[in-house]
Amino acid sequence: MHIFAPASNPNVSVQLTKLLGGYEFAEGLHVHRSPSCPYFPLTRFPSLLKILSAAGSEADVLISEFHPFHCAGFEGIITKALTKKPLILDVHDIAASQATLFQLYKKNENFCYNACDGLVVCSDEAKEYANEITKKEIHVVPNGVNFKSYANVKKEETQKLRKDLGLEDSLVIGFSGSLTKQNGLEYLIRAMPYVLKEVNDVKLLIVGGGAEEQRLRSMVKELGIESKVVFTGGVSYEKVPTYLSVMDICTAPFPRGNEFKTNFPLKLVEYMACGKPIVVTEGPVLRRIVTSSKSGIVVDSEDEVSLANGITRLLSSDSLRKQLGEKGRHYAAGFDWDILADKMYSFIKRFG
Q1: pLDDT score of 68
Q2: Three-state DSSP string of 8-54
Q3: How far apart are CA 240 and CA 242, in angstroms?
Q4: Measured CA angle at 180 (ends 234, 32), to 5 deg
Q5: Within this chain, do residues 179 and 314 fall inside the same structural domain, yes or no?
Q6: Sign of CA dihedral 295, 299, 303, 307
Q7: CATH code, domain with 133
Q8: Do 139 and 160 have their domain in common?
Q9: Residue 22 has pLDDT above 60, yes or no
Q10: pLDDT at residue 132, as a whole number
Q11: Full-model pTM
């Protein structure tokens, strides 16, 4: 099987190497790395030459990632038109209503949904949304994890990392993900003073890097809680399970927004697979997953007091944290990569 994956890098020589180079071979897959800069669509199209050179002769079915605002997906649409091969769009996000170019993104979304042969979406809510746009066949394949790597972190690794991060004597509230406005970290940080009024021996661990990191660090300093917040910066994917294992509570403080009505964040499955109780904000998918799994508490979006109350409730009860964590781990076993790969393959075969 041949897979074309983007390899964004600002270094021009690296981009050219990816464009002109061959492929990586892993577990039976030919992985071709194509250069791209997601926010500037013209940089995506040189990789079309590379895609067409292999897809035209090798592919039975084309699968293209789709983002309405990154112009991701147009490579697939063009390749389909030139090769006459069936195309499945793997949809990750929907057009955000608060975006400046919302109407343009929406037209792009409508065009691509109807130009492909089928869609894969990450949630039942995303399927309902897509059904209002297209009559094409739609299949739900949610985000997932290598379940064993999350469920079986060694205790000694957890203890060592807690010590290295200065968290040995504290309860740990955690977040893992990119530090962007879309992840709502500012509300989690603002919730900390309220939490600390009720529970003093607690720290906030923020795992990940991103554009908002300096602003969030400044916010922590302004609130006078620097000794209670630990930023790790970016962490390699294989180390994420160990970082999650040191947390006592995991959070997903997403703000309000159209896109959060359909998005199924990967972090939810990661948290549950590690057996951690979750505090999430309002949103159809977040509420459904946490309610169905009985793995956590749902609080109001963009409300630091409500968020703090949910966190404090879990911090006050070891038995509740354990109960919710065990239920979440059991639920997450159904999101293992092998299970989801079978679901994906069964859909792809309909077009081959």
Answers
A1: 76
A2: CCCCHHHHHHHHHCCCEEECCEEEEEECCCCCCHHHHCHHHHHHHHH
A3: 5
A4: 60
A5: yes
A6: negative
A7: 3.40.50.2000
A8: no
A9: no
A10: 94
A11: 0.88
Both tokens assigned to 128: 């309902």
- Same-domain check for residues 256 and 179: yes
DSSP state string for 283-300: -HHHHHHHHHHT-EEEE-
Same domain as 262, residue 234: yes
Q: Which residue has the tokens 């071709």?
A: 32
The tokens for 193 are 């003073």
Rounded-to-10 torsion of CA 328, 178, 125, 326: 0
Rounded distance between C-alpha atoms, residue 246 and residue 213, angstroms: 21
| Residue 194 burial class via C-beta count within 10 angstroms: exposed 0-12, middle 13-18, buried 19 and up | middle
User: Across the chain, what does the average pLDDT equal?
Assistant: 86
| pLDDT tens digits along 82-93 | 888 898 999 988
Total structural domains in the chain? 2
Residues 109 and 210 in one domain: no
49 & 170 share domain: no
* Whole-number Å distance between alpha carbons of 87 and 77: 7
Query: In terms of C-beta density within 10 A (0-12 exposed, 13-18 middle, 19 or more buried), how is residue 28 classed?
Result: exposed
Residue 82: HSE in the Cβ half-sphere, 13 Å Cα cutoff: 16
SS3 call for 55: helix
- What is the extent of the structural domain holding 273? 147-334
Structure-block tokens of residue 187: 């509300």
Structure tokens at 254: 């997403």
Q: Categorize the per-residue pLDDT at 45 as very low, low, confident or very high, splitting at 50, 70 and 90.
A: low
- Whole-angstrom distance, CA of residue 119 vs CA of residue 107: 17
Angle in degrees, CA 56, 61, 65, rounded to 5: 100
Query: Which residue shows structure tokens 């923020």?
Result: 206
Q: Are residues 118 and 157 in the same domain?
A: no
Query: What does the pLDDT read at residue 29?
Result: 63
Residues 328 and 341 in one domain: no
